Amino acid sequence: MTDAAEVDELRASLARVLAVADEERRRIERDLHDGAQQHLVAIAVNAQLARQLAESDPKAALDVLEEIGRDARVALEAIRELAAVIFPPLLVDRGLAEALRAAASAHGGRADVDGLPRQFAAFEAFVYFCAVEALAELGGVVRVRAREVDGQLELVFERKAGDEPPPLFGLRDRVAGLGGRVNVEGGTVTALLPLPR
Amino acid sequence: MTVRVLVADDHEPFRGAARSVLAATHGFELVGEASSGEEAVDLVAELRPDLVLMDIKMPGLGGIGATRSIADAYPATTTVLLSTYREQDLPIHALSCGAIAYLHKSNLDAGALRALWARRQSVSAR
Q1: Tens digit of pLDDT for each residue in A10-48?
Q2: I need a surface site. Which of A43, A129, B60, B93 has the fewest CB within 10 A?
Q3: A66 and chain B in contact, CB less than 8 A
Q4: Are A74 and A95 within one domain?
Q5: Most B CBs within 10 Å: which of A37, A40, A45, as the mutation test of the B interface?
Q6: DSSP character for A195?
Q7: Residues A113 and A80 in one domain
Q8: Has this prediction a pTM greater than 0.80?
Q9: Nearest by CB to B108, which of A39, A45, A64?
Q10: Class for domain B3-125, per CATH?
Q11: Over the stretch A76-121, which tens digit does the pLDDT of each residue have?
Q12: Do A174 and A104 belong to one domain?
């Protein structure tokens, strides 16, 4: 590839990364609006109603308080789920291997990551979000493998036989950002990421 | 007179809270619920409510488009826009689509309903 072509490719890659980041922010805004915020609004309205009913109809006020409790629990769960998507606590507490197991399981697959040592937190987060991107882009991943090989972290996604992988722009852009590369062979996608020194 | 109210919002938690407020507010009665702008317009045609509490951000036509349709076709029905926006962040057409007022969803209570209805009567008396 010529220098000019490389620069063009890097610019295109950067534009895609920024577009994905913008879309992610919009998705988080939608999740907040459609999820926790609606329950918090209901809590505010019902709290005022309970205050109004407290003297005139205490039984009805108790029913409204029950409703407030239910909405508060649902809002908390919605916030917990969103926070886990933004940055899973599992990744911080237990590391990349456990977070990959959970991500693979959430997509209906499994992860073979035994013996994967802990790395710098920033690197683990980078690899984790590469994996999440790949799982979302690929769909139907049955197995994720991760291991260290020759100064690199090898991340392998196995799909059902015969499935042709999509272009994987998101995964390729992320991996390229760290100087790694992505190989596709049949239903298997391999990302190779240089380990931090 | 009982004010017949339609609530249009695609979020059930708010519709549920609005149901409770209307049930507890003397002089107001919930007559229908819609979860999209299109459904709100259809239900206004069918039920002819006095007042529509209309969420701004809904799928499809949305609350502002639905309010415009209702104001054109059913001028006897009064529409109030609701959302969780601050007033200064309202979409540009919110104040010109035919709604008589904007109410932050969290402020919906008996007092707000009465004040909105009194405002509607003062507007129509002009």
Answers
A1: 788 778 878 878 888 899 999 999 999 999 999 999 999
A2: B60
A3: no
A4: no
A5: A45
A6: P
A7: no
A8: no
A9: A45
A10: alpha beta
A11: 999 998 998 888 888 989 999 999 999 999 989 999 998 898 888 9
A12: yes
